[in-house]
Amino acid sequence: MKFRRLIFANLFRKKIRLVLTIGSFAVALFLFAFLAVVRGAFNRGADVAGADRLVVIDRVSIINLIPLKYRDQILQIPGVKCITHNNWFGGVYQDEKNFFPQFVIDPENQRQVFPELVVPDDQWNNFLKDRQGAIAGARTAERFHWKIGDRIPIKTTLYGGGSWEFNLDGIYHGQRPENDETQFWFQWDYFEERIPQVIKGQIGWYVLRVNSPDDAVRVAKAIDEKFANSPNETKTETESAFAAGWVKQFGNIQFLILTIGSVVFFTLLLVTGNTMAISVRERTSELAVLKAIGFSGRAVLFFILTESLVIAVVGGFLGLGLALLAVPALARALNGMLPQLVLEPSILGFGLLAALAVGIASGILPGLGAMRMRVVNALRRV
Amino acid sequence: MVRVDGNGGSQSLIRVRGLNKTYSRGGEKIQVLQGLNLDVDKGDFVAFMGPSGSGKTTLLNLLGGLDVPSAGSITVAGDEITHMSGSKLTQWRARHVGFIFQMYNLIPVLTAYQNVELPLLLTKLSGSDRRKHVETALAVVGLSDRMHHYPRQLSGGQEQRVTIARAIVSDPTFLLCDEPTGDLDRKSADEIMALIEELVGKYGKTVLMVTHDPVVAARAHTTLHLEKGVLVEGKASPQSVLAGGAA
Asked: Which class for A16: exposed (0-12), middle (13-18), buried (19 or more C-beta within 10 A)?
């Protein structure tokens, strides 16, 4: 492109200004990517939720336990394919800061209900045979450098407190990058054996799969009606609704992130728009000379838009590249405090598109002004 | 042959008839040019003089297609430019006009070579052909050894030489010079005028020049004075002399 030299010479005219403007883009795009990742993390439960999965909890609160004996009654409801149950354990490994979610699972049905969390068969079979066996998510195993066969003590203040010992029999992997690989599972029988008598036979929640997503509403209604007016009434909802409800406990994250993101981009638009306007105004006479010697108004507009787009693209790539490096590091640093942080290609794509849009928006007004500028008037200002 | 009586032949390179230009300023109409006629042949070197505000630069802008007249016609090499659209006029300028400005108006972030190359970027010439043209133009103005210097690394006279090289590189039909020596010392001004004379004498260029400087104007073949919106030949009126713009 024969105009390349002219465009780049103008871009590098004020190097500090160029660096600062590109820096603004980079910071804004980094912030955008980071906010989108956090939003994604909070919505992850809803995103990865199976359309055919329902969650059954106590109607009052998830912290209330519900009877294990409900399982057989639920299974009798037409449309229910399989069911499993979980309890929250709430322990820590070695130190308080080593938090990760531990769940008591029903080994017979866990894999049918959560097929996307894959455990190799040989490891699963060893787990089934080992009353103190445990399965860890790949990220948690990696975080604590666990390997199969390790003896893992988990301290808890719940269920009578004390340290519980587990044998790591297997490691599960998610089929998708968004799947949570931080959980730690152990057997219901081992749990039931050690907990106080008063809570024996009580589970935290059920997760079940229905034959078809079309059955979900009917089955959920049937379950809640079945246990209506009982000492433990239930609340059944789809897994995605359950996950969304969980996120709502933290406040309106979606609105907060959208607001911050909009402010960031609007500020970026003002900053770059102002920069481009100053840049064009500074060289009014030069642009007039270009038009005098035969460059069309459209060519002048093209030069200015290209400059702002180059700034946007370079800044965008820098910011998103920084996010690509920072998000995995942040995910490691958070140690599972937040759901899986994933910088998805769609975030990168949208970020780049947003950068291009800001680039065009910031260059278009000064560019149109230069395009329409009357050469005679501009030369008179010299 | 330069004529201002409107009786020039149709073979004139530049033919201006009944040119009017009126500006509006604060609701007041100011008529700068009033039925101006001009005929310029190929190879002529014409200087326009006149007091400030007499319309010299306006005339130059109209001749260069940078502005449109209120009435009248301008025909250059058979093309009437007064009715051309903006985009046509832009293309016409690229092909037919070489501009030389008082303040040089070079792009400061481009080297002398790159500044001279600018008009050629609008042509379909290959990179190597552009290089040949640029090197030739810079050789004509005596700046072959400064082609990779930026404007800030050149003297005023050298900058004006680069402007001249930029004006001639695409071999335009005529050159328009607006106070080409206005920002130069006498020695540099003499050198620039010698160069312009060389362009006329040796290369057959047609040059129309606006100047306040009688010494500079004297180097042209013909000096025309703008008085009351029309051109007159020969000596200026006493009023023009008192206004400091006449020979």
From this structure: exposed
Surface-to-core class of residue B173, CB atoms within 10 Å of its CB (0-12 exposed, 13-18 middle, 19+ buried): middle
Q: What is the pLDDT of residues A195-226, one digit of tens each?
A: 888 888 999 999 999 998 888 889 999 999 99
Q: Which two tokens stand for residue A323?
A: 């996010």
Those residues whose C-beta lies under 8 Å from the C-beta of residue A184, and which sit 6 or more positions away, are A89, A100, A101, A102, A103, A134, A135, A136, A137, A140, A154
CA distances from B15 to A239, B19, B39, B92, B174 (A): 85, 10, 5, 16, 13
| Interchain proximity B114–A6, CB inside 8 Å | yes
Mutate to test the interface with B, among A286, A289, A373 (most CBs of B within 10 A): A289
Q: Cα A152–A113–A51 angle (5° rounding)?
A: 130
Give the residue among B97, B169, B172 at the shortest CA–CA distance from B133.
B169
User: Do A172 and A141 contact (CB within 8 A), yes or no?
Assistant: no
User: Cα-flanking dihedrals φ and ψ of residue B53, to 5°?
Assistant: 85, 5
As a whole number of angstroms, the distance between CA B244 and CA B238 comes to 10
How far apart CA B51 and CA B48 sit, in angstroms, is 10
Closest CA to B72 of B58, B85, B57, B62: B62
Instruction: DSSP for B168-231, please give it.
Output: HTT--SEEEEESTTTTS-HHHHHHHHHHHHHHHHTT--EEEEE-S-HHHHTTSSEEEEEETTEE
Q: Are A351 and A32 in contact (CB under 8 A)?
A: yes
For residues A204 and A103, what is the distance between their CA atoms, to the nearest angstrom? 10
Shortest CA distance to B40 belongs to which of B238, B200, B167? B200
Phi-psi region of A374 (alpha: psi -120 to 50; beta: other; left: phi over 0): beta
Interface touch A3/B114, C-beta < 8 Å: no
Looking at the complex, report in whole angstroms how far the Cα of residue B243 sits from the nearest Cα belonging to chain A: 21
State yes or no: pLDDT of B225 exceeds 50.
yes
pLDDT for A49 = 61
Q: Do A294 and B119 touch (CB under 8 A)?
A: yes
User: Residues 6 or more apart from A12 whose CB is under 8 A from it?
Assistant: A18, B109
**pLDDT, tens digit, for every residue of B182-215?**
888 889 999 999 999 999 999 999 999 999 889 9
A contacts of B64 (beta carbons < 8 Å): 292
The reply to whether residue B91 touches residue A294, judged by beta carbons under 8 angstroms, is: yes
Identify whether the C-beta of residue A42 lies closer than 8 Å to the C-beta of residue A247: yes
Q: Which of A9, A22, A28 is nearest to A309 (CA)?
A: A22
Rounded Cα–Cα distance for residues B75 and B96 (Å): 12
Concatenated DSSP letters of A201-256:
TEESEEEEEESSGGGHHHHHHHHHHHTTTSSS-EEEEEHHHHHHHHHHTT--HHHH
The label of the residue with tokens 């009917």 reads A218
